[in-house]
Amino acid sequence: MQRWTKKTLTALTTSLARAYPDAKCALEHGDPFQLVVATILSAQCTDARVNQVTPGLFQRYPDAEALAGAEQGELEALIHSTGFFRNKARNLIGMAQALLARHGGQVPREAQALGALPGVGQKTANVVLANAFGIPALAVDTHIFRVARRLGLSQGSTPEKVEADLCALFPRDTWIDLHHLLIFHGRGSCDARKPLCSSCPVQELCPSGSGKIADPHSGLFLK
């Protein structure tokens, strides 16, 4: 793994912040409950598509109590376009029922309690902690997994291992912003199939983009 120093890590985050000044959570939500729902729906689906679906969904099911009593078929119809709708519908109903049974219908602020809800794993729990409650957490999605490995920030083979490496490298108070910056970079420049290395804002710091190592994602040299 590339040797990163405090100086180069600061240069990385500064360059990313300059390149993506509007980096923030792309899932539109008004409260923690809505963010949990939206994040569950975002699995294997774009945030843009989720944002098209959730207004009608939240109008029909505004809180945990309403969603807990949802009819499976009706819920499936509302979320059909997000993909894997049957499993997502089951998870959403189960999540809402668990919120009522365990937490009085309120989304808990503790990682362990969040992660124990149906359909809510470590990634979703981290997204909610960071964006709904402002609690430092660093969710690793497919973009962050790819970008972190290309940058040599981690050689982890799982999102959990990459998360651990990133959290060890960066100060805790930077995790929330870093999460958004790496996602925006993955979407805007460091594409899975055709990364824009020649115009990348952090190419000089990237061992993959500068041709020092083969791309861990594809196994090919990018430069």
The rough form would be described as elongated
**CATH H-level superfamily of the largest domain:** Hypothetical protein, domain 2
Largest sheet: none
Structural class: mainly alpha
Ends distance: 19 Å
| Count of DSSP H/I helices | 11
Task: Explain this structure.
The chain is mainly α and 223 residues long. It has two domains: 85 residues, Endonuclease Iii, domain 2 (Orthogonal Bundle), CATH 1.10.1670.10; 102 residues, Endonuclease III, domain 1 (Orthogonal Bundle). The two termini are 19 Å apart.
In short:
The chain has 223 residues and is mostly helical. The chain is built from 11 helices and no strands.
Which features does this protein show?
223 residues; mainly alpha; Endonuclease Iii, domain 2; Endonuclease III, domain 1; 11 helices
